[in-house]
């Protein structure tokens, strides 16, 4: 039996409401994982904006990135900061909450209300820690599909996401093609590259090298591997930017001083900035969740799941796609997006593609990029007309 | 008074001799550092190959990179492995030890026999640790110049080096233009970029986050921050390669298994490779030296030292230059080399430039790159004829 959350859509006027909705699934609705493990009970935390229309046809699912969460367009209750896509999602914005019902759920394995390694294992009463089963991008999407079942939404008008969110968008189209009218994978790729796996592995090793990680069972010990997680974040953060963006923002400017101190202080502004990124991240994120979610990204290989041919993931699909990349993104460079487009072409799918000129690197998908905004607005508007919205 | 090493050149037949030569400098010959500190006594360890000619005009100084050492073309006594440039330096090779007297010294601040933070501070009888003064690229070059004085070599026929070695080459030309007949800075730049500083800072934070670092005084405690140093090396190692090289070498291939284990084992070959890189590095390198030398690179800004105009570093210089970059090097991308070339042009210096097509990333300068070898051979041969060698 489902222990259900209130499934009434949240009115757009409540976008400042910080608390998440939670859908709880009992032993009768386990989450069956790619690893073969099953998870029950489990829950998924989500946020919604706008109003679901009468025939439940105007829902847009936003899929968040590695360290993202469901607080897309409302204040984050942990950090007190605005939602991470408030420039995209809201009344009159590219994802227009006056027109669409917008959903975003925290991915399985994360730490913002959805079941993950920091959750209590009902069987033991202890936090899961490393006994939590490994999850995949497909598991994340499977959990989201169960949330949609729970909410009575048979088909999404659109599914949209950047980076790991874009992987979920691709997986949605591959796993549930009939449930996705339009799809927009942004700054993403059909696999995680060797270089990206390598960067993730460095981050994981940084966490595991912290003695406060305690083999993953730090919560029971009342400690947290804050230093290791901060180092992991610092390294990853560099990959989200670009050399040009770092040069423009910081260059070699010194921090509050006229000359180098000849010490290991943060002489350079870029050092101070990175240290801040590391320190603020550990206040909001669970180290084991970081391990699990980076692993899920590493395992992502949509072609391998379809006989080694990416186009096979999309044969006969009716979904219309818009693929977007950013010119200075070196984490998911444009050739990744082109590979998606070529596969969709080979599958005779409807697809448009744009590479947006930007020096902001991978993070450009979170920042003010007018051409990107216009692209998304145009794609969704055209798709909405086709859908009769 | 100098406590001198035997300054007789090592015959080429002795290239398998693992022990280094050491030049020791007493209180009357302190090393005066950019920070204002002075170091005395101090010593510099070096290797030589080939024979110094009668008028001492055939010496080539090779400057090593961040974690390099003086064992250019002979077995490394710590690792037991061949020298790091045995494909470049030897009889009949591009740096021909039948023709040239080749020197390479361990940089000040390092840990292979030259004074550094792991050395004993004569004043205390304890390892320096973090009380060792910060050093700069110019300090490294200043120490090398004192070694040359000691060896009675007034002018180098050539100074050659890649990466941080290339920074030293540029500094040699700027500090001692009359002592350098020919110079070859490879895969380097006139500054360390914000992105490169950022990567270094992550490595330093990884080391300092290791509780076995003990505030830099781990040697006294009989421990070493091996995990932190391994993480630092893993992250840095990615920047030495390229996405294409990682894809070609490893791709998403699994390590000794047919399917992912759904665990945090090193499923992917690239993970196993990186872990090995980290583990083997800590066996041969001192963590504090890593802090000091990365800092020296971060501080490098040759233009800033010359009124903000790089060309001012080279006004009136007679040295002939050959600048080389590699197309897939993203640590020191080709625009860095072009900036050097433009400054040399503005200073009316003699300079040739080549960008070598390679997918091997920054490390290409250490690998078999026939066009690179031919370029170096041609440049040195032409310069040798001009020098009357």
TrEMBL record, chains A, B:
<comment type="subunit">
    <text>Homodimer.</text>
</comment>
<keyword id="KW-0486">Methionine biosynthesis</keyword>
<comment type="pathway">
    <text>Amino-acid biosynthesis; L-methionine biosynthesis via de novo pathway; O-acetyl-L-homoserine from L-homoserine: step 1/1.</text>
</comment>
<keyword id="KW-0028">Amino-acid biosynthesis</keyword>
<feature type="binding site">
    <location>
        <position position="233"/>
    </location>
    <ligand>
        <name>substrate</name>
    </ligand>
</feature>
<feature type="active site">
    <location>
        <position position="362"/>
    </location>
</feature>
<protein>
    <recommendedName>
        <fullName>Homoserine O-acetyltransferase</fullName>
        <ecNumber>2.3.1.31</ecNumber>
    </recommendedName>
</protein>
<keyword id="KW-0963">Cytoplasm</keyword>
<feature type="active site">
    <location>
        <position position="329"/>
    </location>
</feature>
<dbReference type="GO" id="GO:0005737">
    <property type="term" value="C:cytoplasm"/>
</dbReference>
<dbReference type="InterPro" id="IPR029058">
    <property type="entry name" value="AB_hydrolase_fold"/>
</dbReference>
<dbReference type="Pfam" id="PF00561">
    <property type="entry name" value="Abhydrolase_1"/>
</dbReference>
<dbReference type="GO" id="GO:0009092">
    <property type="term" value="P:homoserine metabolic process"/>
</dbReference>
<feature type="active site" description="Nucleophile">
    <location>
        <position position="163"/>
    </location>
</feature>
<keyword id="KW-0808">Transferase</keyword>
<dbReference type="GO" id="GO:0004414">
    <property type="term" value="F:homoserine O-acetyltransferase activity"/>
</dbReference>
<comment type="similarity">
    <text>Belongs to the AB hydrolase superfamily. MetX family.</text>
</comment>
<dbReference type="InterPro" id="IPR008220">
    <property type="entry name" value="HAT_MetX-like"/>
</dbReference>
<keyword id="KW-0012">Acyltransferase</keyword>
<dbReference type="InterPro" id="IPR000073">
    <property type="entry name" value="AB_hydrolase_1"/>
</dbReference>
<comment type="function">
    <text>Transfers an acetyl group from acetyl-CoA to L-homoserine, forming acetyl-L-homoserine.</text>
</comment>
<dbReference type="GO" id="GO:0009086">
    <property type="term" value="P:methionine biosynthetic process"/>
</dbReference>
<feature type="binding site">
    <location>
        <position position="363"/>
    </location>
    <ligand>
        <name>substrate</name>
    </ligand>
</feature>
<feature type="domain" description="AB hydrolase-1">
    <location>
        <begin position="58"/>
        <end position="367"/>
    </location>
</feature>
């Amino acid at each position: 039996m489902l222990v259900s959350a209130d499934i009434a859509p949240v009115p757009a006027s409540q976008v400042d409401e910080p608390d998440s909705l939670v859908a709880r699934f009992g032993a009768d609705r386990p989450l069956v994982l790619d690893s073969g493990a099953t998870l029950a009970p489990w829950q998924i935390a989500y946020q919604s904006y706008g109003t679901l229309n009468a025939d439940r046809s105007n829902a847009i699912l936003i899929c968040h990135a590695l360290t993202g969460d469901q607080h897309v367009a409302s204040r984050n209750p942990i950090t007190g900061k605005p939602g991470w896509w408030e420039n995209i999602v809201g009344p009159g914005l590219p994802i227009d909450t006056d027109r669409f019902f917008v959903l975003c759920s925290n991915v399985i394995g994360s730490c913002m209300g959805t079941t993950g390694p920091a959750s209590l294992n009902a069987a033991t009463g202890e936090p899961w820690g490393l006994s939590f089963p490994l999850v995949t991008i497909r598991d994340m999407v499977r959990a989201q599909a169960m949330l949609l079942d729970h909410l009575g939404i048979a088909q999404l008008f659109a599914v949209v996401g950047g980076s790991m969110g874009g992987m979920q968008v691709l997986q949605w189209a591959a796993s549930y093609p009939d449930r996705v009218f339009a799809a927009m994978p942004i700054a993403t790729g059909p696999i995680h590259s060797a270089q990206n796996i390598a960067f993730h592995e460095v981050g994981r090793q940084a966490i595991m090298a912290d003695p406060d990680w305690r083999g993953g069972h730090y919560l029971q010990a009342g400690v947290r591997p804050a230093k290791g997680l901060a180092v992991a974040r610092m390294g990853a953060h560099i990959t989200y930017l670009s050399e040009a963006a770092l040069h423009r923002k910081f260059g070699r400017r010194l921090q509050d001083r006229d000359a180098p101190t000849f010490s290991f202080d943060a002489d350079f502004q870029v050092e101070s900035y990175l240290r801040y990124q590391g320190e603020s991240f550990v206040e909001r994120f669970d180290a084991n969740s970081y391990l699990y979610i980076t692993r899920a990204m590493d395992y992502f290989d949509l072609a391998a799941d379809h006989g080694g041919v990416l186009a096979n993931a999309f044969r006969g699909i009716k979904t219309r796609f818009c693929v977007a990349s950013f010119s200075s993104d070196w984490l998911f460079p444009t050739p990744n997006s082109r590979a998606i487009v070529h596969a969709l072409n080979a599958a005779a799918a409807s697809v448009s593609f744009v590479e947006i000129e930007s020096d902001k690197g991978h993070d450009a998908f979170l920042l003010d990029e007018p051409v990107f905004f216009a692209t998304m607005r145009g794609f969704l508007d055209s798709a909405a007309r086709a859908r009769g919205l």
